[in-house]
Amino acid sequence: MVMIHKVLVANRGEIAIRIFHTLREMGIRSVAVYTEVDGRSLHVRTADESSRVENYLDTREILRAAAETGADAIHPGYGFLSENAAFAEACEQAKLTFIGPRPQTIRRMGDKLESKRVMKDAGVPVVPTWDAEPPANAYPVLVKAVGGGGGKGMRLVEHPRDLNEAKAAASREAAKAFNDDRVFVEKYISNPRHIEFQVFGDTLGSVIHVFERECSIQRRHQKIIEETPSPAVSPDLRAKMGEAAVAAARAVGYVGAGTVEFILSPDGQFYFLEMNTRLQVEHPVTEMTTGLDLVREQVLVANGQPLSIKQTDVRQSGHSLECRIYAEVPEENFRPDTGSIAVYRPPTGPGIRLDSGVEQDSEVGFHYDPMLAKLIVWAPTRDASIERMQRALSEFVLLGVRNNIEFLHRVVSHADFKAGKIDTHFLEHHAELRKPTTTEIPVEALLAASLTSSDSRGHRGTNGADQTFDDVWQSGAWRNA
Amino acid sequence: MIGRELHWRIQDHDVVVRIEEANGKGVLRVNDRTVPFTVREEHSSGGWIEIDGRNHQFFVSRTANNVAVWIDGHTYVLERIEKGRLLEAASAEHGSGEIRALMPGKVLRVDVKVGDTVAEHQTVVIMESMKMETSLTTTRAGKVAAVHCKPGQTVDMGEILAVIQS
After folding, report:
1. Does the interface ipTM go beyond 0.90?
2. How many domains does chain A have?
């Protein structure tokens, strides 16, 4: 068996760094790639070696970097080339181990119509879908892009007369975003929860699930808060959904880490939505509650070794919550912000994990996704987990770029969130959360700003000893005091 | 004693802050409120203040006219709309050898008498004002030429309390 000894991570930011951590623990060397604007980024200096590429999406460049650095495997992370079947094939042809599922699996699951057909055949519940006209009693319906994701090429249609126009618009949008103009129509489930199951398969035929993650708190169809276990999933439902997730993975002979996404309707019915053939952003909550290192399992599977654990041995303990820290302004419709991180003091303490792509003085540009870090907590219960997250967010100091930390604090502090009464429209239905609860500035903040403002008297220690004074104070009374 | 006035614009309304401070203790005046504080630590990117016996750590980040302040889990952005100006240039010894009251208040203690030799940074008088004690110290060594106050006496700001000859 040829073992992986050096891995190139075709990604950036927090996920690249998170993968380097496990590689280092496994005694495997790591290679970072970086573009011109990322030359000084944290992920580059965290790897053992680095190689510059023109673009994170450029297959030839990534393969060249792998050849030059002598890497024998590639981990794609999430996003970028992670669900690109042609890239996985190109790796195989270049005799590089692609740490992910087989190319044909990526291709089949990337096609939303094909993936649904496969799941239906495997007996997994699927949202009713139509290629053409849905029956009149099926409305409202969703028009979705076959090659899509992230809400692009998606339209809600309330009435049959609006269907054709919506299909045409979605098709145009899909062609631009995914280079594939095919769309389909799906039953619209109102007030759904997003529940996904982590699955894992190895080359020896073992397929397991590692419980669910609830990712219902989303803005612009992107998850921002995730947790496990879900407050909406009973042990009985968990068993049923877990079984369906494993059946889904088996149906495509799944190898590696994958995620089976379901929507859970308020009546307790669940439907297969899609399968993500990669490591998910929110994978840490699964790690925190099971003790597994999912990247390590990915490497084992890529080596042709068995998974380290059997289904009957997988246990979940306590509760874990993740908040995605973004350089964005919730108060201004979540617009991204850029700048230099002037102060960065993330929280520490019991049960806290930070997967960060930035540090003090990092530059946050407009070239890439504005996610800076993921703050993850673990506690024995969901209530304790929320309290810990509130504490952690309230201690997180991040100045220099505007961010969503206070917004996240307001969300996890909301009575409905605490009660587990959430669905994928939570943030639309609670738009007030985007605004601060009070606009009044406390005297502490006024004092802090006034003490340190630019024409003040320099800096000093606790004893008040003068050090550097602006001219205005040079002749003043200060020395007397 | 340092007195300063700062004009801030915070989300379309203006706030005038007056700060009087000596030896790390002082008061902040805003609107009708008077808030005593202690500065426990201060550095280029933040500090530590104490108000009403409670600790507040803070961090700041400055751009041209704006100050972003992180304190107690919240970030506030304040815009400086006028250069802070000196309210009271309460006279110091600076060369004259005069030790003056830095604020109106009561003399608690006089540590020297005429003819004493004093060292640099030696305490001459301790005053109480706004429920805070302030030590008035020398800036250089010398001899006490005159003492114009006694414990318990109420003095005005700027009043000469003692004179040091070098």
Report:
1. no
2. 4
